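Supplementary Methods, section 5.1.

A reviewer requested that the exact input to the structure prediction be made available. We therefore reproduce it here, unchanged from the version used in the analyses.
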Amino acid sequence: MIKLSAKGVYLVDGKLCERAELSPAEARKNTIAYSILHSHSTAGEGAGLRIRFDALVSHDITYVGIIQTARASGLKEFPLPYAMTNCHNSLCAVGGTINEDDHVFGLSAAKKYGGIYVPANQSVIHSYAREALAGCGRMILGSDSHTRYGALGTMGVGEGGPELVKQLLKNTYDIKEPEVVLVYLTGKPKKGIGPHDVAIALVGATFGSGFVKNKILEFVGPGVKNLPIDFRNGIDVMTTETTCLSSIWETDEITRRHYEAHGRAGDYKELKPGRVAYYDSLIEIDLSEMESMIALPFHPSNAYTIHEFVKNADELLAGVEEEAKKKFPKCHFDLRSKVRGGKVYADQGIIAGCAGGMFDSIDEAAAILRDQSTGDGYFSLSVYPTSVPVSLELTKIGVTEELLRAGAVIKPSFCGPCFGAGDVPANNGLSLRHTTRNFPNREGSKPGEGQLSGVALMDARSIAATARNGGVITAATDVDYDYTPHEYHFDASVYEKRVYNGYGKADPDAELILGPNITDWPKQYALADNLLVKLAAVIRDPVTTTDELIPSGETSSYRSNPLRLSEFALSRRVPEYVGRSKAIAAEEAARRAGERPEELMRVLSAVGDADRLIADTQFGSCLFANKPGDGSAREQAASCQKVLGGFANICYEFATKRYRSNCINWGILPFTLAEGTDFPYEVGDYVFVGGIREAVAAGKEEFAAKVIRADGTVEDLTLYVKGLTEDEKEIILDGCLMNYYAAQNH
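The structure derived from this sequence is encoded token-by-token as follows.
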């Protein structure tokens, strides 16, 4: 189905070639990605990329913190379109007034600074961006990791909030020239195959090896024309799970019709590679060979064909149970009980959000369920259209009625099933979801309290086929149904009546309305001459997700209160982390107040003159993980560590650029170890890096460290921080991005 080649490849007149008349360096300039990136860069040729975006998007989990940071850094008005959606609408059933307080803040900020405000349940973040902000050749930066609009000819990048702050303050997004991977599509999907089938297969083929990490995926080939725009969008939004930086697709008549249907014909232009284009590596996908897929808990890359899974269900589910046992010893997870009589029974089906809730997927799911029943057993089906315009059209053409008649529940536009705040299954339940992620807790369970359920990702079509069979997991390719696609008609009046569009109409005198839970960031301090950190958590899993670093779901009730939110840091993974970090922070506060804490003096005496070192050695907590940061772009994974007094992370590599960037922007030293370096150290051990400030300022990338173990022994350790930009050095020296801007504006 999918072939990978790490060798460079030419595309000549649309055909794959090993050689061409242009050098790789010259032909690389003919990729779509190169032209878009360089048209948005303010840097000169060969100087890296310093990008200014065309628009920004963020949702109600992140926009309060972004605006609070920008305010503290001197924000006067939004210099580019900035859409604030309220699609997460976190936990409207609990938490009192604080949820709506954030929404009131968002609207007041849109009026004050000239922003776009999309009220709750109108649209999920990426649907609104597709419907209103995307344009061929544009770039959009979002604070959600699934900021991907490549199928619409728009390069979307998902990063943490500080990167949006930089854009709001008219600064740039700085990266090295990324490699570009050719994704060459051929063939046509057979009936029953949907975008999630292709996406899951692609993630399964690429994630584990890091084949496309921090690269651009460029989708071209004769197979593109065989995919409707929703199908392309459905594949594209999942490219985040490959760990690529961004994506872009060639555009065509189908793309043009999409823009025309949305009343934005002028935003279309043809995007194609030049006659001779060079790519750093190649992914070939034969769409005609795609099968119905499933991604087992707890990661989108746990990919199997549904036929393969059902045949080997007991063995594969045993593996999931074993993983759960290692990560969540309090939980009893018995998925093998779902296997009965050679069939696998699910408890729930969810079609939702920016990946599953699109018009075409719901339309075809309804066709599969026409005149059928989801049954009166434990299995239930919920459908969340991705926006009110989509919901309206589905209602007009009778699709909503067909789904309701079959037993489905129709719900408003909401990201809840994607981030752990909606349709939480029963303990030990198995939920099938056409959503973006299936990490632990993304379904809303609380593993730290002994509650655990699992999510398997499937396409809407196979979820509908499963619902039709009363919850027996079924590939859509195995059911007989008639389907004639409906043409989609977008009704702009929905947004005209409800969305506040204040871009270019900032009102400095407008009041910014802050509810009692909305608080400023606590004071952060510049990096001291020396650094001493104590290991507060040691995680030896192959990969650590941002959901483990700061769980999604109910925690987001406190998204606008940094201190309260930080109480949830690592709570599902290392519950002791918060208490340990607070104790370390208390010692640092005492040191800063002029005291000489006994423990600090003892440790410092092991590496030098404690009486001299105590005054200029910053003391904080440290996290070790093999490969942290896979998953969400939420800056809270880093900011919560810093609020608790975290000053460093140590790892072999960062899973994503965005998490490493978040750490840097919060003044957390992103230390790495050389491959093969032993790290036998445990919670309670200390790491001392002398002369850290001078070394960072000088641009050094290698740091001689000392490890002080619990028994008092001292060992040498070499740490690295590679590839910092000049701005990133200053941010770390100043202690965080806010301090950096405050110093600039002083």
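DSSP finds 28 helices and 34 strands in the chain. These observations are discussed further in the main text.
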